[in-house]
Amino acid sequence: MNDGRESNDKPHRRFNPLSGDWVLVSPHRSARPWDGQLESADTEVPSAYLPDCYLCPTNVRAGGQPNPDYGDTFVFTNDFAALLPDPSTTHATDPDGLLVSEPERGICRVICYSPRHDLSLARMTPAQVEPVISTWIAEYRGLGARDFVNHVQIFENRGLIMGCSNPHPHGQIWASSTVPNLPARELDQQQRYLDDHGSCLLCTYVARERSVGERILIENDSYVVLVPYWAFWPYETMIISRRHTPSIETISDKEKTDLAAIMIELGICYDNLFQTSFPYSMGIHQQPTDGGEYPGVHYHFHYLPPLLRSQTIKKHMVGFELLATVQRDLTPEIAAARLRELPRIHYLEERKHA
Question: At what angle do helices 126-144 and 253-274 cross, to 10 degrees?
Answer without folding.
Answer: 120
